[in-house]
Amino acid sequence: MLGFINWIASLLIGLLALLLVTFAFTHIASIDPVIRIVGDKASQATYDAKRAELGLDKPLPQQFLVYAGQVLRGDLGTSWSTGQPVASDLVRVFPATFELATVAIIIGGTLGVGLGLLAGLWPGGWRDSLVRVISLLGYSVPIFWLGLLSLLLFYARLHWFGGPGRQDVAFEFTTERRTGMVLIDTWLSGDMGAFRDAISHIALPALVLAFYSLAGISRLTRTAVLEELGKEYVVTARAKGAGQFRIIFRHVLPNIRASVITVVALSYAVLLEGAVFTETVFAWPGIGRYLTISMFAADVPAILGGTLVIGVCFIILNTLTDLIVGGLDPRLKP
Predict the structure, then answer these.
(1) What pLDDT, on a 0 to 100 scale, did the predictor assign at position 8?
(2) Residue 43 belongs to what domain range?
(3) Fewer CB under 10 Å: which end of the chain, C or N?
(4) Which has the minimum average pLDDT: 34-48, 71-85, 86-100, 194-208?
(5) Phi, psi of 287 (to 5 degrees)
(6) 93 and 68 in one domain?
(7) Which long-range contacts link 290-297 to residues 24+ away (Cβ below 8 Å)?
(8) Residue 2 pLDDT > 60, yes or no?
(9) DSSP letters along 255-271, please?
(10) Residue 209: pLDDT over 70
């Protein structure tokens, strides 16, 4: 019970800190929202009236309480670019990012853990060297450059994958959007042509993001495996005649699963918030592209709303990870 209370408390503290950061940004930003609305040619009386209407003439603590109340009600303001409520815009674009990041973490997590196991089982060999090179490239290569190169090679030259966007124009309006996630919607529609087209479009950006995420996952898995293989219980198991794979699957993996789950969850959160460049390169209409367009337009409400949603996702994933890891290993409970 105490652990659950601590989990709720950490979640609430994280959300409060996020609200404070986004609220502070509205006052640190050089863009005056009143000028942005009424224009720089408006009279002082018009300026003052709009400032009072927005509540900017009130003390900061009172402004924060009003802001927090609006956020809790789901009111993230109105986008200066689209003229629509920011919450509606985010509901429209977030499923695309969620779908892309989920596919990417499934690929990156599976490959990352597998490569890390290979490197840890045969340290110093060619497998280990290959995994280390892959990890180094994943950390070093700019993701937008990798995205552009992959589009040029695999789409424009080889025609192995679909191009930018989520679907070809021929399929874009033929499927009912039930969940906002194209793979699920096309599958539910029963149109296998549209489903295959959706796979061909999501595969390339998902692989680019997966390559970015598997670098950290494989490196941590390799380190954890090497650390466990050097412990006394492994030496004892080997002395009793246990084989390498038995040691890995019966002893090492159960002991490193908490670390692996943590790094995969954090990588997933990073993909949700860090898909800006990938979505821009692949014209993927998700929250990353929405934020990019909003930043170019100096659309403060949209920027703050998108940042808030991503921050909430990060906090929830982090606290859920702590809860899961604590359930798997009571020693690690908060």
Answers:
(1) 75
(2) 2-72
(3) N
(4) 34-48
(5) -70, -30
(6) no
(7) 290/89, 290/90, 290/93, 293/81, 294/79, 294/81, 297/80, 297/81
(8) no
(9) HHHHHHHHHHHHHHHHH
(10) yes
Confidence of residue 56 (pLDDT cuts 50, 70, 90): confident
Residues 156 and 210 in one domain: yes
Is 59 in the same domain as 116?
no
Same domain, 60 and 142: no
Band of pLDDT at residue 207, cut at 50, 70 and 90? very high
Phi, psi values for residue 85, rounded to 5°: -60, 135
- One domain, residues 203 and 319: yes
Domain total for the chain? 2
> Is 78 within the bounds of a domain?
no
For residue 111, count other CB atoms closer than 10 A to its CB.
Answer: 18
Q: What share of the chain is helix, strand, coil (3-state, %, to 5)?
A: 80, 0, 20
From residue 138, give the alpha-carbon distance in Å to each of 51, 66, 108, 131, 278: 48, 43, 11, 10, 14
Q: Are 146 and 207 in contact (CB under 8 A)?
A: no
The enclosing domain of 299 has a CATH number of 1.10.3720.10
Q: What is the pTM of this model?
A: 0.84
Q: Of 17, 45, 72, which marks where a domain is finished?
A: 72
Separation of alpha carbons 268 and 285, rounded Å: 19
Residue length of the chain: 334
Query: CB count, 10 Å around CB of 307?
Result: 18
